[in-house]
Amino acid sequence: MVKRRVDGQRMLVVSLDAVGSRDLEYMRSLPNFKRIWDRSAYCDHVKSVYPSITYPAHSSIVTGMKPGRHGVVNNIRLQPKRSGKEDWLWQRKYINVTTIYDQARKNGWTTAALLWPVTAQSKIKYCVPEIFPNRVWQNQVMISALNGPILYQIELLKKFGHLLDGVKQPNLDNFVTEAAEYTIRKYNPDLFLIHLTDVDTHRHNDGLDAPKVQEAMQRHDIRLGRFLKALEETGDMEKTTVVVLGDHCQMDTHTAVYPNYYLYKDALLRVADDGKIADYDFYAQHCDGACYIYPSHKTAKILKMGAGKERQELMVRLRECLNKIPKEMMKRVITRKEAEQLGADGNCVCMLEAMPGYYFQNGFEKPFEKVEEMTEHAMLATHGYLPDLPEYETFFMMTGYRVAEGTCADEMHLWDEGPTLAEILGVTLPDTDGAALKELLN
């Protein structure tokens, strides 16, 4: 027999992409953020995942596990022959474990999600997945319809589609806001996950502390106020939990580095006549501030054989190749074992960590490129770096049902958030890396 949720209990989770602890002072000066803050349990020092990028982070939030365990170890798939045009890990199938929305659904909760990463083709009842067309024959309507509930998405597009201009901001989050308010008022879901990217977009485009970032924060405050009003008018706020959180912060950047250039020059990566990667011994897969070095299937077999001559020669060549990356651009090489301990993908050979001001990309045509000279993937700020820098932390706050108002956790990891939310929902997330912060709960 399916368990039913507590009558009237609801939870709204709002993720503010790229909003960090550095933003809290300004956030708390804004009326709706302050309203949440004044009655919240919170943590101002939340460490993100590694690599600290959006899809691994959001998958850790809903699973309570590090990326290496839940399987979403990057934003993009490993597709060397599509270098620069890789598909993203959009679909739910890439998460190898259960999530809070799966468990909530099993317990009779009605679930909803708007642009929450890695929810395409999930069983969320009301869902607009974060996905975009990545082939010349695709369009947005088609790709969204194939990956989420068709009638619900058509309903939203008919009402609010005029607000959209591709993925441009603030248009995209304005659409999400209208769709969220409408969904609360019409369907009143029990668990609602919302992902807003206005700040993330403007930090990438304009820099970490650009005036447009503060304007985006002001828009987020207005959006939060609208969500709260819709909740108040559709249910019992004494039985409603409102959660506002960040996934990572960003750092200012000025130069993109291309590790595959060095692999190409040292013949560890080979290119066909059409200019596409033909095959490789090692391939550099970027995560912005970090970068995986992956072996080919053939190389992986050689490396697993142990201390053979061929293995030793490959590793010497790789080490000598990576040493050619200028030291002012690369902070350190992280071993496979260290990467695994940090929660990253243990299938890599190693990882690279960029110096402040630098980030990695997948091209091989040049060694590096100034942001102002780039025609693609130019970013004045980005993420992906090791999450242990104090200025790089993010935040977590919640108010309402089962929340111990006024309590504070000194620090937490992103993978502690899933178990904490699961405790409030009354569902089980098995075998998590994180733990519920019960000091924040009644």
- The share of residues in extended strands comes to 15-25%
Low-confidence stretches: none
- Count all strands and give the number: 18
Instruction: Count helical runs.
Output: 15
Strand order of the largest sheet: 4-3-5-1-6-17-2-18
Radius of gyration: 22 Å
What distance lies between the first and last C-alpha atoms, to the nearest angstrom? 28 Å
| CATH hierarchy: architecture of the largest domain | 3-Layer(aba) Sandwich
Instruction: Using the coordinates above, name the CATH class of the largest domain.
Output: Alpha Beta
Largest sheet: 8 strands, mixed
What name is given to the CATH topology of the largest domain?
A: Alkaline Phosphatase, subunit A
Q: How confident overall, as mean pLDDT?
A: 95
Number of domains: 2
Write down the overall geometry: globular
Give the CATH superfamily of the largest domain.
Alkaline Phosphatase, subunit A
Structural class designation: alpha/beta
> What's the helical proportion of residues?
25-40%
How would you describe the overall organization of this protein?
With 442 residues, this protein is α/β, with parallel strands linked by helices. The chain has two domains: 10-250 and 389-440, Alkaline Phosphatase, subunit A (3-Layer(aba) Sandwich), CATH 3.40.720; 254-379, Gyrase A, domain 2. The protein has helices spanning 24-27, 31-37, 54-63, 67-70, 100-106, 140-145, 150-160, 171-187, 198-206, 211-232, 259-265, 297-304, 309-322, 336-342, 417-425, and strands spanning 10-16, 41-47, 111-114, 126-128, 191-196, 240-246, 251-257, 269-271, 277-280, 282-287, 290-295, 330-335, 350-354, 357-360, 368-370, 381-382, 394-400, 412-413. The strands form four sheets. The chain has an eight-stranded mixed sheet with strand order 4-3-5-1-6-17-2-18, with helices on both faces. Strands 7, 14, 15 and 16 form a four-stranded mixed sheet that branches. α8 runs parallel beside α10 (211-232) and α9 runs antiparallel to α10. The longest helix is centred in the middle third of the chain and has 22 residues, at 211-232. The protein is globular, with a radius of gyration of 22 Å.
